[in-house]
Amino acid sequence: xxxxxxxxxxxxxxxxxxxxxxxxxxxxxxxxxxxxxxxxxxxxxxxxxxxxxxxxxxxxxxxxxxxxxxxxxxxxxxxxxxxxxxxxxxxxxxxxxxxxxxxxxxxxxxxxxxxxxxxxxxxxxxxxxxxxxxxxxxxxxxxxxxxxxxxxxxxxxxxxxxxxxxxxxxxxxxxxxxxxxxxxxxxxxxxxxxxxxxxxxxxxxxxxxxxxxxxxxxxxxxxxxxxxxxxxxxxxxxxxxxxxxxxxxxxxxxxxxxxxxxxxxxxxxxxxxxxxxxxxxxxxxxxxxxxxxxxxxxxxxx
Length: 302
Description:
Elements: E1 3-9, H1 18-27, E2 36-42, E3 53-58, H2 66-75, E4 84-88, E5 91-96, H3 100-110, E6 116-120, E7 123-129, H4 132-138, E8 148-154, E9 169-172, E10 175-183, H5 186-195, H6 205-218, H7 223-233, E11 236-243, E12 247-252, E13 261-264, E14 268-272, E15 288-290, E16 298-301
Helix pairs in contact: 2-3, 5-6, 6-7
C-alpha cells in the first residue's frame, strides 16, 4: 500500500513552485507508507547544474568530512573538474564537471563503502527512514524549484525497512522508478540480469524493475517500449512511475490492481495514488482527470 506522487511542470513559470506543490501532494499520501520515503527532483538550482554530473549518496555520514571527500574526489579528476560536496538532509551530493562514469569511479575509490542512489546531470535523489513529511522537511523539499518531482512513501512488504530499500531507484543517468505493488518473479529476473553483468545494491524487488528498464533503454528501447517489455517479463500487481531528464511515464499491471489517478492540464501533468493528493493543484477544476487503463503505458515529455 505504498503511495506515489509525481509532478511534471510544462509551464516554466511554475518551476519555482515545484517543491511546494510536490510537498502538498506528498502530505496526502503519508498514511499509505509511513515507514520511509524518497524524493527525486529535476533541474533544481543548488542541487544540480548544467554541464555537471551529480551523484546522490545514501546517508549524510560518509565517514569523512565534506572537505576531505571533495579533496579526495578532486585529486582523481581533471584539474578543471571543480568537484563539490554538500549534505542535504540525510543525503550527500557529490558534483563535478565530468562525465558520470568518471565521477562514479572517483567516488568509488574515495568512498568505497558508499551507495549511489542517484546519478546524472539533472536529478538529485534523496531517501531516508522515518515519517515522510519529516524526511521532506529535512531535505528542504518545500523550497525547491525544478521541472519535475517524484516522491514515494513506503510500506515495506518485500524487504526490510531501510533507507536503501526506499524508492525511487535511480540506476542510470537521470532515470528514476517508483513502485506501488510487488513483483512476484523478481528473484528470477534478478538472476537473469546478474548473468548479463548487472550489479544490484539491495534486495528490493523494485530495484529489479528499475534495472530491467535501464537495461532495455541501453539496448535501444524507448521509455514506452521498455515498460511494455517490462510487462511481458515481470509478473505481479503494480503501478509504476518512471522519470527521465525530460519525460515521465505511468503504467499499471494488466489487472490494474493498484490505484492511480492522473490530472493533466496545459501547465502540468500530475499523478498520485489518490485524488486527494491532486485536489490542491492549481487549475485542478479544469484539468483532465482520469485513471490509467490497465496495461497501457502513458508518457509525457517536457
